[in-house]
Amino acid sequence: MKSHIVKIKSLSHVTHDVLRIVLEKPDNYLFTPGQATEIAINKKEWKKEKRPFTFTNLPDEDQLEFTIKTYPSHKGVTNELLSLKTGDELIIHEVWGAIAYKGEGVFIAGGAGVTPFLSIFRDLKSINQIGGNKLIFANKTKADIIHEKELKDLLCDGFINILSDEAVAGYAHGIITEKFLKENIDDFDKNFYICGPPPMMDAIQGYLTKLGVRDNSVVVEI
Ligand SMILES: Cc1cc2nc3c(=O)[nH]c(=O)nc-3n(C[C@H](O)[C@H](O)[C@H](O)COP(=O)(O)OP(=O)(O)OC[C@H]3O[C@@H](n4cnc5c(N)ncnc54)[C@H](O)[C@@H]3O)c2cc1C
């Protein structure tokens, strides 16, 4: 499998536990919005620890951007990323992934599951095609919402937040249920894009099936 050693151009926080990491882009390294690669840290003891992450910038830029939620308690790769700095090296691998835009619809994300949709929405914006796309974004608290302002600016009324662990005026409170989907989606004859923790994805796919959405209208990572 082909791999590339690339330098970190910048590293910053976008929320209290989510990093934005910008990397050099190897020549002829191509991806489409929604796709991912595996990343390892180029240090002796970490080289073999590969983890999947999604590109969050536009494919035609001359750098790569990742938006990565960190889990210090796992003592794994994302925790180690917190100690890196500009100029340190990562190893990126082949591009893969099944999530791709196939037309207007409803995007449903949980936490860092929004990353493939960031790249898709940024791409749609760049060609003026945001249209009637909608994002239902589930998080624990308001502070966990990744790029809230950007997503609000992009999607306007098509941006719906739901918070499970915090009651905040103007935000739905709870988890995504079948009732919540019915209340917030007016047309189920659309494309649905889902990305989040596996239990959330299973539950939502079940609700959508009950609400009459055909399997071939649902885009998920496989
Ligand atoms: C296709 C795809 C794309 C993805 N894209 C992104 C993205 O763009 N951004 C993003 O943030 N995430 C993304 N993810 C998720 C991301 O890959 C994981 O969050 C990441 O692999 C976690 O790596 P880690 O080494 O920090 O922790 P892990 O590999 O989860 O854990 C390291 C070790 O910690 C222990 N551990 C595991 N779970 C727990 C727990 N709950 N509590 C305590 N210890 C535990 C285990 O011993 C484990 O071996 C993506 C996943 C996939 C499949």
Offer a concise description of the structure.
The protein has 222 residues and is an alpha/beta fold.
Task: Provide an overview of this structure.
With about 220 residues, this protein is of the alpha/beta class. It folds into 2 domains: about 5-95, Elongation Factor Tu (Ef-tu), domain 3, CATH 2.40.30; about 105-220, 3-Layer(aba) Sandwich (Rossmann fold). It contains 5 helices and 12 strands. The protein has a 6-stranded antiparallel beta sheet with strand order 4-3-6-1-2-5. Strands 10-9-8-7-11-12 form a 6-stranded parallel beta sheet. Helix 2 (about 115-125) links the parallel strand 7 and strand 8 (about 135-140). The longest helix is centred in the last third of the chain and has 13 residues, at about 200-210. The mean pLDDT is about 95. It binds flavin-adenine dinucleotide. Flavin-adenine dinucleotide binds near residues 68, 71, 78, 97 and 221.
